[in-house]
């Protein structure tokens, strides 16, 4: 059978085969696809795949323990941040003044303090300016 | 690995900016359980209540104007601590490290005082005032939209009566 097919194939490639012989070849390859030229190609690919396991797409650096650690580290950092934020919010709210009258008094005093502080700085710099002027006068007089 | 690095960087950065916003918060946390210090925090909700009040005098008017733009006020103060001077210099260090700009320093025999600001887009976002005396330490933070001219007017308009008399004396002479 095999030799008969070979013979027919040779005839086919040489262009000497009759229509009946071509039909016989077609029928044979339909029945045995692995024997067909393209079938042999696929067989070779499958064989190659079995020999070298499918590792080509795996990134060389991502071994599983590392990614696990990175997830753990990220969660830890996130938790610490959350704890800090919550603790801070609690500390801040603890001292918030709820009584409007009291809040008004405190704000007034605080702003007065800031305001007079700012003015103190200004009068201070004015005094310095005056000293400079006086000095200029003195040097002019000379 | 890259992703992890990016995540950590983002978290650290957000923590840093978070800590930067308020040196005061740090002191609140540090001194939360210390009874020697008075700690006060006033929220923007209160300020919006004040603005409904009617101003009786010029000083009050300036005060309400300043308050209407504020978002928060925090004060930590003590009049009876031994290491006030040390706390003062430490506070200055913390303020500098947090990226505040010095506005002015005033020094007299009794006390040291320093104003620092944090700006954003040409506007003052936070004003920090630190006072350090022999036994006195004050850390005061104003945040929101801060108009220094406006704030400095409050004290001046309070003294209007006295200043008027002064100018009269000048005129008489």
Overview of the structural elements:
Chain A is mainly α. Helices cover 80% and strands 0% of the residues of chain A. Chain A folds into 3 domains: 2-51, no CATH class; 66-96; 99-142. Chain A is built from 5 helices and no strands. The radius of gyration of chain A is 47 Å and the shape is elongated. The termini of chain A are far apart. The model of chain B is unreliable at 160-173 (pLDDT under 50). Chain B starts with a helix and ends with a helix. Chain B has a single domain (22-172), classed as Protein Transport Mog1p, Chain A. Chain B has helices at 2-21, 23-30, 44-50, 58-68, 84-97, 148-158, 160-172, and strands spanning 38-43, 70-78, 101-107, 112-120, 123-132, 137-146. A 6-stranded antiparallel beta sheet of chain B has the order 1-2-6-5-4-3, sandwiched between helices. Chain B has 173 residues and is α+β, with helices and mostly antiparallel strands. Classes of the chains: A mainly alpha (142), B alpha+beta (173).
Features:
heterodimer; A: 142 residues; mainly alpha; 5 helices; 0% strand; elongated; B: 173 residues; alpha+beta; Protein Transport Mog1p, Chain A; 6 strands; globular; disordered C terminus
Summarize the structure.
The complex is a heterodimer of chains A (142) and B (173). Chain A has helices at residues 2-14, 19-31, 37-51, 64-94, 100-141.
Strand and helix layout:
The complex is a heterodimer of chains A (142) and B (173).
Chain A lengths: L1 H13 L4 H13 L5 H15 L12 H31 L5 H42 L1
Helix pairs in contact in A: 1-2
Chain B lengths: L1 H20 L1 H8 L7 E6 H7 L7 H11 L1 E9 L5 H14 L3 E7 L4 E9 L2 E10 L4 E10 L1 H11 L1 H13 L1
Antiparallel strand pairs in B: 1-2, 2-6, 3-4, 4-5, 5-6
Number of domains of chain B: 1
Strand/helix succession of chain B: HHEHHEHEEEEHH
Radius of gyration of chain B: 20 Å
End-to-end separation of chain A: 132 Å
User: In terms of structural class, how would the helical and strand content of chain B be classed?
Assistant: alpha+beta
Mean of all residue-level pLDDT scores of chain B: 79
Largest sheet of chain B: 6 strands, antiparallel
Spatially, the strands of the biggest sheet of chain B line up as 1-2-6-5-4-3
Structural domain tally of chain A:
3
């Amino acid at each position: 059978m095999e030799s008969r097919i070979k013979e027919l194939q040779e005839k086919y490639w040489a262009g000497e085969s009759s229509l009946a012989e071509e039909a016989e070849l077609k029928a044979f390859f339909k029945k045995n696809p692995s024997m067909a030229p393209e079938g042999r190609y696929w067989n070779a690919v499958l064989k190659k795949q079995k020999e070298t396991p499918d590792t080509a797409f795996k990134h060389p650096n991502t071994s599983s323990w590392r990614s696990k650690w990175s997830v753990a580290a990220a969660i830890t950092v996130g938790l610490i941040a959350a704890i800090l934020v919550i603790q801070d919010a609690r500390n801040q709210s603890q001292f918030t003044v709820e009584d409007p009258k009291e809040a008004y008094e405190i704000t007034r005093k605080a702003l007065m303090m800031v305001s007079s502080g700012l003015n103190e700085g200004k009068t201070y710099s004015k005094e310095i300016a005056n000293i400079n002027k006086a000095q200029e006068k003195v040097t002019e007089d000379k | 690995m890259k992703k992890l690095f990016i995540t950590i960087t983002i978290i650290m950065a957000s923590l840093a900016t978070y800590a930067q916003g308020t040196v005061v918060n740090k002191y609140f946390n540090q001194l939360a359980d210390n009874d020697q210090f008075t700690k006060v925090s006033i929220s923007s909700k209160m300020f919006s209540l004040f603005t409904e009040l009617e101003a009786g005098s010029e000083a009050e008017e300036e005060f309400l104007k300043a308050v209407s733009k504020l978002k928060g006020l925090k004060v930590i103060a003590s009049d009876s601590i031994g290491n006030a001077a040390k706390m003062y210099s430490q506070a200055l260090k913390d303020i500098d490290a947090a990226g505040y700009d010095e506005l002015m320093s005033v020094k007299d025999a009794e006390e040291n005082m320093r104003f620092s600001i944090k700006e954003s887009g040409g506007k003052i976002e936070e004003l920090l005032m630190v006072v350090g005396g022999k036994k006195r330490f004050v850390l005061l933070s104003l945040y929101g939209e801060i108009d220094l001219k406006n704030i400095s007017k409050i004290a001046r308009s309070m003294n209007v009566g006295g200043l008027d008399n002064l100018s009269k004396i000048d005129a008489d002479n």
